[in-house]
């Protein structure tokens, strides 16, 4: 996996706070990511997902209209079963219930706001690398599917 492959990954940011969107866009741009789109309107997530086909979604939980849990539920219906699409939750809700619910609904990682910028970037790199490695493996073994967790 090369740095350029990771930096060319498509990232979708969904957060109702414009300040959070600008912060994440700036951090990603400084890191070298070039394919980043964002929305403050969670109701646009599925349309953006379909049109953009992101490699990673950065998702807030506490939003009007559709909250992050509802977005995760909708995404689960649109992500092909044989695909691996990481979702990183970025939220101010630090409760264990929030973590458990988001992870149970398919999120792959969880960071609470305010987050450490370096840690956030490391997690983003790790999730994108996993996504790209999965896609390479899938090219050689088309029958492979990601494991689904059992509800606890």
Describe the protein's architecture and organization:
It contains 6 helices and 5 strands. It has helices at residues 3-7, 18-31, 45-52, 68-78, 96-104, 117-140, and strands at 10-14, 35-39, 56-59, 87-91, 109-112. Strand 1 (10-14), helix 2 (18-31) and strand 2 form a beta-alpha-beta unit. Helix 3 packs parallel to helix 4. The longest helix is centred in the C-terminal third of the chain and has 24 residues, at 117-140.
Helicity level: 40-55%
Strand order of the largest sheet: 2-1-3-4-5
CATH architecture: 3-Layer(aba) Sandwich
**In this structure, how is the largest beta sheet organized?**
5 strands, parallel
> What is the straight-line distance between the termini?
34 Å
What's a quick, concise take on this entry?
This protein has helices at 3-7, 18-31, 45-52, 68-78, 96-104, 117-140; strands at 10-14, 35-39, 56-59, 87-91, 109-112.
Secondary-structure map:
Blueprint: H1 3-7, E1 10-14, H2 18-31, E2 35-39, H3 45-52, E3 56-59, H4 68-78, E4 87-91, H5 96-104, E5 109-112, H6 117-140
Parallel strand pairs: 1-2, 1-3, 3-4, 4-5
Q: Any descriptors?
A:
6 helices; 152 residues; 15% strand; 47% helix; alpha/beta; globular
């Amino acid at each position: 996996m090369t740095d350029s492959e990771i930096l060319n990954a498509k990232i979708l940011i969904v957060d109702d706070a414009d300040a959070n969107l600008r912060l994440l866009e700036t951090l990603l741009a400084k890191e070298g990511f070039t394919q980043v789109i964002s929305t403050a309107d969670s109701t646009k997530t599925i349309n953006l997902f379909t049109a953009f086909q992101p490699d990673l979604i950065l998702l807030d939980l506490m939003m009007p209209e559709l909250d992050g849990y509802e977005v995760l539920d909708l995404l689960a219906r649109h992500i092909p079963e044989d695909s691996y699409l990481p979702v990183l939750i970025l939220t101010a809700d630090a409760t264990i219930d929030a973590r458990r619910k988001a992870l149970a609904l398919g999120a792959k990682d969880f960071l609470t706001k305010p987050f450490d910028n370096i840690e956030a970037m490391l997690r983003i790199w790790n999730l994108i690398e996993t996504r790209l490695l999965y896609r390479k493996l899938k090219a050689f073994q088309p029958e492979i599917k990601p494991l689904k967790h059992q509800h606890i």
